[in-house]
């Protein structure tokens, strides 16, 4: 029996060997396929975590930008309000009335001194500047601590103050109130874009530093967790060179203290040229006011598309190289004996300058200004001065019809301009900042800045010397603008909206850099 079994195995040993080989090969193939599937699942999970980590960091970065703008905007607001003290002009007008009242014998004679028709006309032309422009009680001349609508309007008929006529004072009030509101709108939009550029450039360095550190774990660590390990580590915040980045962020001092004032002079000259001939008691439609506002913008930003595209905003946003040391000293970052021009800081400044001078920056800035001016004129002025109801989907046509015929005196809008200047420059609950942050192109612009020029970054935040380039370019950013313009919405300047696919491009660029 045993011998027979041995002979049977001997005769079929070839078949057994083939079968065993097939089974072994099948087992190995199965294990290989399972291993590959497991690797693919792990790779997909890692990519999903990496994308979510990038998105989370980016969204947090944009929230930081908003809080930063609200924190530093009041500095520029204070400087602009000090440079254009419209309330002081009102105080002078009210003092004229107080002097007239002091010379008067009694209220009955005061009432009879002005023609009733003139007094009635003035009483309808302007609301109280005290309530509409945040005039302090110390600025009010009457003994009750406040002024009625008729009392403020009666300053139009008072005798002129020595040195300045009544007409000159009201013309100064008109130019001052409009100029500072427009200047604050420009400052808010420029500060928003500058902050987005700065924090997204630094956020990109922070992200890359985190990825590099996570990709190089200690020897005993066998698994990589894509978590933010440096949120509370100030030495690692925004890359390894925290001091350099502090100096870089302090360059916003220039816009807050010098750039906004230089811009104010340009805006005031444009307002004087456009609004200078208007009489405060003249009635104009909201459409006419919008046209005049557009003329001011054209004189500031450029009348043609080519002028707008080539206009240089850089002098308002960053100091010239010979003034950088002065700005760093004024902001408390350096002293006269230190040397602030480190290679890392110089690279950040150069890249920021390139971004500001790019057509993409002008395109996005135009859209932000469209939104800001629209909120001021079409919402606030329309509601508070022209008494047009708020816009809604069902009442948009009704508002358009009513707004076409509605008229208001120029003087009635001046009080709204005065008050809105404080709202535009507010550091809390700023509805104008909320309005411009609704522009989709702003976030897309930030996404492209956040994900651009990865190849020029090294773990220590320096520039890559192997590429043969001394500084990054904005070619990728401009290409994204051209390729991303899929929306047909047109701004006042005739520029198509864009950046529809910028977030996808940002993620694709980030994946390609791995």
UniProtKB/TrEMBL annotation:
GO terms for molecular function: protein-macromolecule adaptor activity. Keywords: Coiled coil, Membrane, Transmembrane, Transmembrane helix. The chain crosses the membrane at residues 16-34. Residues 104-125, 140-160, 457-492 are annotated as: Disordered. Residues 457-473 have a biased composition (Polar residues). GO terms for biological process: protein import into peroxisome membrane. One of its GO terms (cellular component) is peroxisomal membrane. Residues 37-64 form a coiled coil. The keyword Transport does not apply. InterPro entries: Peroxin-3 (IPR006966). This is Peroxin-3.
């Amino acid at each position: 029996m045993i011998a027979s079994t041995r002979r049977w195995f001997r005769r079929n040993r070839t078949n057994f060997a083939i079968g065993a080989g097939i089974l072994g090969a099948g087992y190995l193939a199965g294990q290989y396929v399972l291993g590959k599937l497991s690797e693919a699942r792990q790779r997909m999970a890692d990519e999903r975590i990496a994308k979510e980590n990038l998105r989370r960091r980016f969204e947090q970065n944009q929230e930081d930008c908003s809080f930063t703008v609200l924190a530093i905007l009041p500095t520029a607001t204070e400087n602009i309000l000090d440079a254009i003290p419209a309330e002081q002009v009102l105080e002078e007008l009210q003092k004229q009335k107080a002097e007239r009242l002091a010379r008067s014998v009694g209220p009955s004679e005061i009432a009879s001194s002005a023609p009733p028709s003139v007094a009635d006309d003035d009483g309808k032309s302007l609301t109280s500047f005290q309530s509409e422009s945040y005039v302090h009680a110390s600025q009010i001349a009457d003994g009750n601590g406040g002024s009625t609508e008729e009392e403020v309007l009666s300053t139009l008929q008072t005798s002129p103050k020595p040195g300045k006529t009544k007409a000159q004072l009201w013309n100064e009030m008109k130019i001052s109130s409009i100029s500072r509101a427009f200047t604050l709108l420009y400052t808010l939009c420029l500060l928003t874009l500058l902050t987005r550029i700065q924090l997204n450039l630094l956020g990109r360095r922070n992200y890359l530093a985190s990825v590099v550190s996570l990709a190089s774990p200690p020897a005993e660590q066998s698994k990589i967790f894509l978590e933010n390990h440096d949120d509370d580590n100030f030495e690692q915040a925004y890359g390894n060179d925290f001091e350099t980045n502090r100096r870089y962020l302090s360059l916003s001092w220039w816009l807050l203290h010098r750039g906004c004032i230089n811009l104010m002079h340009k805006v005031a000259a444009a307002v004087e040229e456009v609004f200078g001939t208007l009489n405060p008691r003249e009635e104009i439609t909201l459409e006419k006011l919008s046209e005049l506002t557009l003329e001011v913008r054209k004189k500031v930003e450029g009348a043609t598309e080519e002028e707008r595209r080539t206009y240089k905003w850089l002098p308002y946003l960053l100091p010239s190289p010979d003034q950088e040391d002065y700005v760093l000293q004024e902001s408390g970052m350096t002293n006269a004996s230190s040397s602030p021009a480190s290679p890392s800081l110089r690279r950040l400044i150069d890249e920021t300058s390139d971004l500001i001078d790019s057509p993409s920056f002008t395109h996005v800035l135009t859209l932000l200004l469209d939104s800001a001016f629209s909120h001021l004129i079409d919402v606030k002025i329309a509601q508070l001065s022209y008494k047009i109801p708020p816009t809604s989907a069902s009442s948009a046509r009704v508002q358009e019809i009513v707004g076409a015929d509605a008229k208001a005196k120029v003087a009635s809008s001046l009080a709204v301009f005065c008050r809105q200047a404080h709202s535009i420059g507010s550091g809390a609950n700023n509805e104008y900042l909320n309005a411009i942050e609704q522009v989709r192109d702003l976030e897309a612009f930030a996404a492209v800045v956040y994900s651009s020029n990865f190849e020029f970054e090294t773990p220590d935040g320096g520039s890559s010397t192997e590429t043969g380039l001394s500084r990054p370019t904005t070619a990728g950013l401009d290409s994204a603008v051209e390729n991303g313009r899929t929306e047909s919405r047109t701004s006042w300047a005739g520029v198509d909206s864009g950046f529809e696919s910028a977030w996808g491009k940002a993620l694709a660029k980030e994946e390609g850099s791995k």
